[in-house]
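re: that complex we talked abt at group meeting.

here r the seqs, copy pasted straight from the sheet so there may be weird spacing, ignore it
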Amino acid sequence: EAQVTQNPRYLITVTGKKLTVTCSQNMNHEYMSWYRQDPGLGLRQIYYSMNVEVTDKGDVPEGYKVSRKEKRNFPLILESPSPNQTSLYFCASSPGGADYGYTFGSGTRLTVV
Amino acid sequence: DAKTTQPNSMESNEEEPVHLPCNHSTISGTDYIHWYRQLPSQGPEYVIHGLTSNVNNRMASLAIAEDRKSSTLILHRATLRDAAVYYCILRSHYSGNTPLVFGKGTRLSVIA
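got the structure back, here u go
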């Protein structure tokens, strides 16, 4: 089944403790991205990648890092999480271009205390 | 990408058709019209997209006005599982991989 897989689904952590949220897709998509969703603010893009070793900032990149060493994986790294990064995170992938839809993962609910 | 306008909420009875409108009066000739939906506690889900002609797939139909300034997502028989927030998004052919910009969407309630 074509899908985007995120792990973990739920995570509670403490301020300053480095964490990684993994994202993997099995569709050979070139484009991958990370979004966060907050009440009243909607979905906002954090980072995106157009291909292996090519990444760029989205609208809200502060406090996050990403890497794209393989086509299928696009992990989101929080080096020093803070409470304002408590949010619902979604990974998405697409073949690229306006004539294709995106496939989203099921989400990771992160709480930073 | 050009702006879209959708009603905040709509209600439908189960097993009846639902027409979800979207206005995009500033659409350009190269903008694709995309629809996504987000069910409670899930990630957004691609529904359908089109450029000029009406489109059908297993989930829904997309009717595009002749002047392309509005479109309608049609769910032929609403089920309880269709209760979600529906987003209408324009994507420029020249936008490359700029992000999907989600507005507030239309919250669809389905009544049994």
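couple things i noticed - Residues 52 and 64 of chain B are 6 Å apart (CA to CA). Strands of chain B lie at 9-13, 18-23, 31-38, 45-50, 55-56, 61-64, 70-75, 84-92, 106-111.
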